[in-house]
Amino acid sequence: MKSRIKKIYENLCEEVDGILIMNSTKPHVDMTFFYVTGLIHGEFEGSGVLLYPDGEAEILTSALEEESALKSGMPVTAIRKREEREEWLKDKLKGMDKLGINSTELTYSAYKKIGENTDAEIIDVSDEIIEARNIKDDEEISRLRDACRIASDVAEEMPDIIKPGMREYEVAAEISYRMKKLGATGDSFEIIASSGPNTAEPHFTTSERKVSEGDFVLLDFGALYKRYCSDITRTFVVGEPSEKQKKIYGTVLEAQKAALETIAPGVKGEEAHNAAAEVIDSTEFEGKFTHGLGHSIGLSVHDGSGLSPSVDIELEPGMVFTVEPGIYIPGYGGVRIEDDIVVTEDGYELLTDASKEELRIIK
Ligand SMILES: [Mn+2]
Q1: Distance between Cα 300 and ligand 1 center (Å)
Q2: Which structural domain range is residue 242 located in?
Q3: Residue 82: is its pLDDT beyond 90?
Q4: Across all residues in the chain, what is the average pLDDT?
């Protein structure tokens, strides 16, 4: 993964002698560890990887995961006792003047431990790491494509699987099971399977509520595939939709299309958001789109960047985002339609292709 390490170094505005990625225990494991090593298997809690300016790297891990770590092709030090970790740090960081760290993923205790074992000045290179991780290479896009295909296939079949009377958590279990049958190693985040008024809460997850006639049913989920995350949302209706339900769905669909039309290199992320917001705000649902249009996905489901007025970013080929406008009416319900896209040289490629043109009906 030399090219990825070099990409991080190319982004630096201040030279460093090394960059140290240190994991603590889950969930404080820095996905950058997997970005630079390319490793698919293993937990790597308490492990680290030291990156050098020439693209070389070496791994510190426990004896438990030595075999897994060796698959990276990088030199591996496998330790059996805690003290050996400090010895490794002292030895490897000796003579360095400046050491880069990833402040957004490093725990305070790991940060202190590094400081106790080096005289180097510690430089935060988290922005440069995010910048590198934001532009996916071919292998990453290929894994994301597979993760998206799994989620799309499950989204496509769900309206036929869900029956009135099913509880939300049962719907979530079906989604998870079906993604795993298609090769996912897990859910990329906690599944949202909400119904009726619960769909008005964008991050509801699930409850014991039964899916009932007249409900919106909102499913937001993703597959984890070779460590990469997909993220899709489809909203359905139980029985014949009302005029209001059709209007909400149609408006969200139109907003998503307006946003997708803007996606191309050189465009500001904010512009895509605004295109969707303008569609929604020109209707009776003004002000009901209450979140950003999308976020970058990759090794993490929120991979560090986004499409919203609060993120200053210019789109570049290889960036992968969700595009997910929604309308939420408290006490009534909500609709969100979410797809994943990769920015290409002349526009974008849609990675999730589950149908959405019609509001699908659960019978
Ligand atoms: Mn999302």
Answers
A1: 11
A2: 138-362
A3: no
A4: 97
